[in-house]
C-alpha cells in the first residue's frame, strides 16, 4: 500500500518549466490529486533526446512533441515567467498574470542551440515544421560541419553519416577526447572509433574562430570555417552543438 498525502485544501503547486522534470512532477501531483499549475512558454513538451534524429529523418519530429493542454488540461498555463516573489508567493508572467503558490517547483532545465534544443516560443506545428525544414537543408548539403564533440555533437555527426553515408561529415571539437567527461575513457574511445568507421572526419583540439560570421543550420555552398590554429574547412552547412546553459532567468534575482 502506498502512503497517502494529507491535504488541507490550501495547497496550490506551481511548476515552472515543462521539460522532463517539470512534466514528471506535474504527473505525480495529478496522480496524488494535488492542485497544481504547470507553466511553460511553449505549448508542448519536447522530447529533445530524439531531436537530432528529427533533424535528419522526415516525419520523425512529430513523434517528439506532446501537447501540454491535451496532457494536463486546465492545469497547464502557457506563459513566460518573468519573475518570482517568494515573500508574496507569486509567480509573475509576462502578460501580467500572477499565480499564487503554496509550494513552488522550479524545473526550468537548460538551453542550447537548435537542433539539439528547441527554445523558440512557437506552436507545436510550427516547431515540427522547423525540424522538417532542417531535414531539407541537410539533404541539400554535401559537406556538413558539426561544431562541438560532446554528446550532442557526436550524435549529430553519427545521425547524419548513418542517414547519408555519401555525405562528407566533419566534426570539430576543442578537446582532444570526444564525448562527455563523465563517461569512462574506454567508452569515449569507442565513440571515436565508431565515428571513424562511419567515415566522419575528426578535427580534435581545434576551436572555431569565426563562428559569429557563419550562417548555421542552412545550406550555403562553400562556406569557409576557420579555427584558432588557422585550419580552414569548406562546408555547405554548419551545425552548432555547443554552449548548453542553465535556464535561470525566471528566478535569478528572486532568491538572493
Question: Can you put this structure into words, describing what you see?
Answer:
The chain is α/β, with parallel strands linked by helices and 256 residues long. The protein folds into two domains: 13-115, 3-Layer(bba) Sandwich (FAD/NAD(P)-binding domain), CATH 3.50.50.60; 141-240, FAD/NAD(P)-binding domain, CATH 3.50.50. Helix content is 25%, strand content 25%. The chain is built from six helices and 17 strands. Strand 14 and strand 15 form a beta hairpin. Helix 5 packs parallel to helix 6 (185-198). The radius of gyration is 21 Å and the shape is elongated. It starts with 12 loop residues before the first strand and ends in a 10-residue tail after the last strand.
Write the layout of secondary structure elements.
Layout: E1 13-16, H1 20-31, E2 36-40, E3 44-46, H2 51-54, E4 65-67, H3 68-72, E5 76-78, E6 81-85, E7 90-93, E8 98-100, E9 103-106, E10 110-111, H4 124-140, E11 143-147, H5 151-163, E12 168-173, H6 185-198, E13 201-204, E14 223-226, E15 232-235, E16 237-240, E17 245-246
Domain FAD/NAD(P)-binding: 12-250
InterPro entries: FAD/NAD-bd_sf, FAD/NAD-binding_dom
GO molecular function: electron-transferring-flavoprotein dehydrogenase activity; flavin adenine dinucleotide binding
Key attributes of the depicted protein:
256 residues, FAD/NAD(P)-binding domain, 2 domains, four-stranded parallel beta sheet, 6 helices, 25% strand, flavoprotein, FAD, FAD/NAD-bd_sf, FAD/NAD-binding_dom, oxidoreductase
Task: Give the terminus-to-terminus CA distance.
Answer: 41 Å
Largest sheet strand order: 5-2-1-9
What percentage of amino acids are in beta strands? 25-35%
* CATH homologous superfamily assignment of the largest domain: FAD/NAD(P)-binding domain
- Remind me, CATH topology of the largest domain? FAD/NAD(P)-binding domain
Classification by helices and strands: alpha/beta
Helix content: 25-40%
Order of helices and strands: EHEEHEHEEEEEEHEHEHEEEEE
Gyration radius, rounded: 21 Å
Text of the CATH class of the largest domain = Alpha Beta
Architecture per CATH nomenclature, i.e. the level-2 architecture of the largest domain: 3-Layer(bba) Sandwich
Count of discrete domains: 2
Number of helices: 6
How many DSSP-defined strands?
A: 17
Mean pLDDT: 94
* Principal-axis shape: elongated
Give a short account of the largest sheet.
4 strands, parallel
GO biological process, one term: apoptotic mitochondrial changes
Keywords: FAD, Flavoprotein, Oxidoreductase
Cofactor: 6-hydroxy-FAD
Protein name: Ferroptosis suppressor protein 1
